[in-house]
Automatic annotation (TrEMBL):
It comes from Acetobacter senegalensis. Residues 33-122 form the HTH LytTR-type domain. Coiled coil: none annotated. One of its GO terms (molecular function) is DNA binding. Pfam families: LytTR. It comes from the Bacteria. InterPro entries: LytTR_DNA-bd_dom. This is HTH LytTR-type domain-containing protein.
Amino acid sequence: MIILKQRSTTHDKSANSGPVLVERPARTVPLGKDIIALQMEDHYVRIHTRTGSRLAHMTLTEAIETVGPVEGLRTHRSWWVARAAVDYIEGTPRSMRLHLEGNIVAPVARGAVALLREAGWLDAIGDK
């Protein structure tokens, strides 16, 4: 991945103050169908799987991009959940929670309720 970063120096207006290319090492989350959820914790992502959890130093967006073809949704600003891992949903649209495998409970932001409904999660969970 290559990131374009603007160099900001207030006292140096030389030709070197333009954009700088910064290379970051590729990060992967090789979890496949074992992934349950991704949870943001400060500057780390807790990766919940069927075999346990671990922390990775990356943003939630980076972690979601590396998950691969697993169906899931970002249910909250700090959570991404794999659809297959949802056991049941409780609460109201103002206070909804997803109960996942491994006794993990993920919050659902009020704005994400419509996404869950559009994706068919609210109808299909009872059929599991």
